[in-house]
Amino acid sequence: MQQFEINNYIKKQLGEYLDAKQCDLKTAMDDETMNHEIAAILHKGFPTMVQKFYSLKKFEVFLWEKREFLYTHIQARLDALSQPKK
What domain of life does the UniProt record list for this protein's source (predicted)? Predict the structure, then answer.
């Protein structure tokens, strides 16, 4: 998880998705269907080489099974993007 960054484009895509579903990240990650959709959004932000090595299907399973741990990690990265740079 330390090897990928969430860029502003992915943050925007994720925000639009959550707004459309009218829920927060935690709620979406706890729903299996929405969790898979979030996985697809995040996977698009991976470097091409990582996408080839770590398929979307594999990432969907990983995100679902580790959602409790990954929620705090993803939320922290999203929060970091919202902070003004020093």
Answer: Bacteria
List the one residue out of 8, 76, 2, 10 whose CA is nearest residue 38.
Answer: 10
Whether 15 is covered by a domain: the verdict is: yes
Q: How many CA atoms lie within 13 A of 57 on its CB side?
A: 0
N- to C-terminal Cα separation, the chain: 24
| Distance in angstroms (rounded) separating the CA atoms of residues 50 and 5 | 12
The backbone torsions φ and ψ at residue 68, rounded to the nearest 5 degrees and listed phi first, read -65, -50
Residue 1 placed within a domain:
no
Range of the domain at 53: 8-82
Q: Is 66 part of a structural domain of the chain? A: yes
Question: Considering its fold, how many domains does the chain have in total?
Answer: 1
Q: Which pTM value belongs to this model?
A: 0.86
